[in-house]
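During the no-cost extension, the postdoctoral fellow (Dr. R.K.) reprocessed legacy sequence entries with the updated structure-token encoder. One reprocessed record is reproduced below for audit purposes.
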Amino acid sequence: MNFAYLIIILLMFFISCKNESKNIVSLKNRIEIKENGKNNSSTYKFIEVKIGRKDFIEQGEKYSNEYKVDNLNIKIADNLDVKNNYNLKQVYINNKLIFSTKSETWIFKPYYCKNSKNKILFFEEGDESGTWGYNIFLLNDNNVKEVVFLEISSLNNSELNKYVSLFGHNNLIQFKFLEDEIFLETENNVIKTKDADIKIDTNTFKILINNKKGKPTQY
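Re-encoded structure tokens follow.
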């Protein structure tokens, strides 16, 4: 009788320990999921911009390209600068004119990324020789804020989302480069990306550049 009782006690103890182990593992998983979610919330994810209509007329306005992403309808219109004989670009977002290029560009391609806090829109400018840089816009609710024209490019002619990733921290958006070198126009040189420190300040809508060899440049 005592032996059977002892067996029951040991069995109950074993079951209790097994359940406690499961609870610990479950708690650990919940903590890891929470931490991963916290980290991921600051990471910007590039989202494919889908191509819509080409060379169309809408309400009397002629457009060359239409793009769609999230709840954004982006239309590009050609605007001839007769004085300089330039074919400039005008950007409309949800039927509102937000931007006109200041010089002629042969390539004008949008990229879009977002995290839980901000949305960023890039427009690549360039020609057959490569990329000149990107017009950058921050989107928050219904507001579109122009940041600046950032003159960077990949030495491998990579698309933006192939050589750049973005992370948010407080009011700053940090660029991280996935290639060893980039061309940075402000330095007029090829630089090692380990020496490149580029951020967007979402409070001032300025670009902060520090090549780690001197004082930061803001523009």
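The helical segments are 2-40, 160-163. The chain has two helices and 18 strands. The remaining legacy entries will be reprocessed before the final report is submitted.
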